[in-house]
Amino acid sequence: MKVTAIVWLLQLFISFSLSWGFGAVKRSLIIPGTASSSRAEFLSSIVAASSLLVPVGITNAFDGGVGGLGKTRPQTGVVFRDEEAAAATTQSKLGVTYELLAPDGSPAVVSFNAPWPLLQTAAGIESRDIGGGFESAFVQVTELEKGSEIKPAQLKEAIFSSKGKFGMYGSPTDIKLRLVSPENSKSPAIYLVTFTSLTPGLRESDRKAYISAKTVGNGLFLLVTTTTAVRFTKLESSLRRVAESFLVVDAPKTNLRNQK
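^ thats the sequence. predicted structure below, dont judge the formating
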C-alpha cells in the first residue's frame, strides 16, 4: 500500500514537471520495475527529485536577521519642532539644519555637515553613504537632567540600547568609550567609541564612531558619526570634521504649532 502511494505521488510529480517544462526531472528519475532499478535506487531518485521542489532562495529567508523580524523603526528621540518644515529640509554645501525639541520642550537649532546624502526618513535625521553603506552620521536625542554632567553610561544607553539603530539585531558588545575633546561654549564634547554590532544577517561587525554631544534645556543632543573599524583609520580625519561640525544652540521662541 505504501509503495503504491509513493508511486502515485511520483507519477503525479512527473505530470506536473512535464506541464511546467521540467522534462529533465522525469528523465532523471528511475521508475520501479525496470531492469536498471532497485529499491535503493528508487528511494534515492525520490530524494533527488524532491530537492528540486525546494524554492530558490529559501536559505535566505532570515537574512534580515531574526532580531529584525517585526521590529519597528529605531527610536532616536528626534522630535521636530515643525514637521512640515523638516520634511522640506534639503542639504547644501553648508550641511543641514533642523529645529528640534528637547524632552522638556525647549527648542534647539541643530546642524551638521556630512559628505553623504541626507536620507528622507521618518526615523530621524541621517546622512549615509548609500554607495557602500559603511559611513553614516545620525542624530540621537535623550534626556539629561539640567545642570548634570554627561556620563559615559548615559551615552551607551542612548546609542547602544536594543531600541536604537545599533541594537536592532542584538545588543552591541565590547563597547569602549573615551572623551577626546571636552565641551565648550562653541564646540560639542566629542567621544570616541569602539564596539561590535550585528548586521541584518547576524554577522558581527567591528565599528568605530565619534559621538558629538551638546545640551539645550534638558535635552542631550548627539551626533553619531560612524564606519567600520577597518575603514576608520583611513577616514578618521574626515569623520572627525563631521563630528566637529555639529552645532546645537537655543532656538528663538516662536508660536510654532509643534512647540510644547
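The beta strands are 96-101, 107-112, 126-128, 136-143, 173-181, 189-198, 204-216, 219-228, 247-250.
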